[in-house]
Amino acid sequence: MSRVAQAIEQRLRERLQPTALEVLDESAAHAGHAGAQAEGSHIRVRIASPLFTPLSRVARHRLVYDALQDFIDAGLHALAIELL
Question: What is the pTM of this model?
Fold first, then answer.
């Protein structure tokens, strides 16, 4: 797991208290793509959290984006979110 993926996992565990979490760095599969880097530019998050229970799908995604905003500001090019 890349450093970026590890940092994202730690952040999500701290902020969203997930019951299930998988963070995948898919950057290598996007080599040559605009915005691609060796690691940490394309991340897939699979997550379930009790904090999602009363929220709409859009609001759940917003929680994840808000938790990771500084990663996005630092150059995270693509974030795929799968709600479990």
Answer: 0.86
